[in-house]
Amino acid sequence: MSWTPDPRPNWVAAVNRGDAGPVVDEARRPFDPELLMAEALVRQGRASDDWAALGNNDFIEPLTLFCHGLEHEADLTVMGRWMSRRMILRLLEVRIQLNEYLAADPGTLSEPIDQPIFVIGAPRTGTTVMHGLLAQDPAQRAPEGWELLRPVPPPHPDPDIRAADPRIALAGAELVMPQTVASGMLAIHEYSGRMYKECLSAMSFEFRSEEMVSRTDVPTYQAWYDTADLRPAYRTYRKVLQILQRRMPTRRWVLKSPAHLQGLPALLEVFDDARFVITHRDPTAILPSVTSLIATMRWAHSDQVDFAAIGRHHLELYSRSLDNLIDLIDSGRLPADQTAQVPHKLASTEKMAAARSVYEQLGMDLTAETEAAMAAHVAATPPGKHGGHSYQFEDLGLNQAEVRARFARYIERFDIPVPDHE
């Protein structure tokens, strides 16, 4: 196996050596859940023991497990500790803001979320492409990075005022930091405050999110998360969307995350009229690509990254998740008329054809105005503008035939092309 991360910038190496006093001092503080909650409360102008301001206690157990993992399992660098600590404080502060806002304006909870479209599918199958395309429809809206990281107060309806919101820069700095620390990140997946964002950022307010395990190796939290009830995370996500549309009426949300494959039963309970766009790809292409992404994310936080272990984990995770997807379709819990299937090749090389196919499968009207907006978006977002994403199946240390055998049901059900990579 030969996976080697790109070298970090010199300034990151200096910070990790301890050459940046304020960052080092903050990074040395322990990942103690009570201390972090108290600090977040004080930062929001509350008493340090005003626990009620943080809402119900559903988040306490996962926060505690996550903090344990960060302190004792993740082997974080100075930058890794600093970024993780800042993320936790933001999540706790936004919890306080969410509760304050909903207490002041309880009518927000009556905001309708009608037939949202969720773009799902394993990672690296074209979910980002389809999310961006569907967001071009004037009748639809995709949340931007700053909106999901800092949703309170609701965005201003005036576009000029909205564009000057200071939260855009705050969220942008946090989102860009990992791709600055890990040089190869930008070529794999770009983030910014104004780009469309995955649902995980809002689900993280309950600390029930794959965001935690994608950034850091926290096996105790991972074991808990694998069987966790995700309904609290989806309920909070729904509230976030209601807040975001409080001053900007939204006909339909377009949302996206591969992680929804693990939470579909909970998602369907909270968003019972949801529509789904499901992207598909050869698993022997999915696994090395997603493993490279996660390994690079973890490299931003730690010097110790086990590429093969990440690959084995995602083999188990997505073979199980895609089997569960088929079970949900076969049982009728995920009705066929509420889903659109999109092959990766169509999403990656024939984007407009992919969009037309989705609208046809979901019985939606694709207007000339929307087609023109989609075509302009495709022209403005060429693939590979930040360099190529290099990965090899062989780096996983897995057997190609065995991988395809694990995904045999998925490959057959969705007629996935499986060229020989050997």
Quick recap:
The chain has 422 residues and is mainly alpha-helical. It has one domain (10-413): Rossmann fold.
Radius of gyration: 21 Å
Largest sheet: 5 strands, parallel
Strand content: 5-15%
Secondary-structure element series: HHHHHEHEHHHHHHHHEHEHHEHHHHH
Structural class, judged by helices and strands? mainly alpha
Strand tally is: 5
Average pLDDT level: 93
Q: CATH homologous superfamily - what is it?
A: P-loop containing nucleotide triphosphate hydrolases
Q: Specify the helix fraction band.
A: 40-55%
Can you tell me the CATH architecture?
3-Layer(aba) Sandwich
**Overall structural domain count:** 1
List keywords for this structure.
422 residues, single chain, 22 helices, five-stranded parallel beta sheet, mainly alpha, Rossmann fold, globular
Question: What would you note in describing this structure?
Answer:
There is one protein chain. This protein has 422 residues and is mainly alpha-helical. The chain has one domain: 3-Layer(aba) Sandwich (Rossmann fold). It has helices at 10-17, 21-27, 33-43, 60-72, 78-104, 127-134, 145-149, 159-163, 166-181, 185-188, 200-203, 210-215, 219-225, 231-244, 260-270, 283-299, 307-331, 344-349, 351-361, 368-380, 400-406, 408-413, and strands at 117-120, 140-141, 252-256, 275-280, 339-343. The chain has a 5-stranded parallel sheet. α15 packs parallel to α17 (307-331). The longest helix is centred in the first third of the chain and has 27 residues, at 78-104. The chain is globular and about 55 Å long. The two termini are 15 Å apart. The model has no long low-confidence stretch (mean pLDDT 93).
